[in-house]
Amino acid sequence: MPPRRRHQSTRRQTLNEAAQLADRLQTAGYTKRDIGRIIDRDPSLVSQFYTKNKGAAFVPALREVLAAVETGGITDLPELTSIAARHITRRTTASGTRARVRGKAVLITPTGTGTGRVGVQAIASGSARLRPLIAEAARQGLRLAFTVRLAKTGYVHPSGSRTDSPGIRRDVIQRADHSEERSYGSAQTGGFDATDFARRVDAASGDVTASVHQWLVETGRIHPDAHILHLEVRTWRPR
User: Following DSSP, what letter does each residue of 129-161 receive, concatenated?
Assistant: First the structure.
């Protein structure tokens, strides 16, 4: 029986380069979901590197990300996403125009559960991908919660302060780059009215980042000059 190492080597040789790079990132501790977030695509596309021989367009980005992880010691997902974005080129049509990328449908389960996340690139453009999720949650009368990440110095209250909102779902997650994730709202505390947040987003001309930032400033949780680095929105149906 051949050694397992040889079996793994043979398997790797049968994979396309995108899948081989994804394998090495997974060996480094990243999941397919993480890789999907890094290249700003659905994790199902990463699976298709293996099953449908896709991913050639992402090879340059994956190479740079792997080098950043293995050589540069960079492990932060938003930073890796930023590195990848500089090496991802949109496809062009036969006429030379940029090809459209199909948007991911808003998925809210019958129980009202839905989740949307955006990183550095989407944050800068207003987190537009989260707007349909918030709008649909408002239409269905759902509750809403969100998690934000920013530099520690951007928060008004210290980590662990009950005046802010730690202790909910994820507590406070501290990162090596001196940023923190804090969650606001939960099913246990009732969360927020999605309709109210949808109105805020509409008032901000669809800019989800700006509307969340404004709420955090208005409620005394962050400083006005703080910058959101990561944003996640969660929904559920009230009981």
Answer: GGHHHHHHHHHTT-EEEEEEEEEGGGBSSPTT-
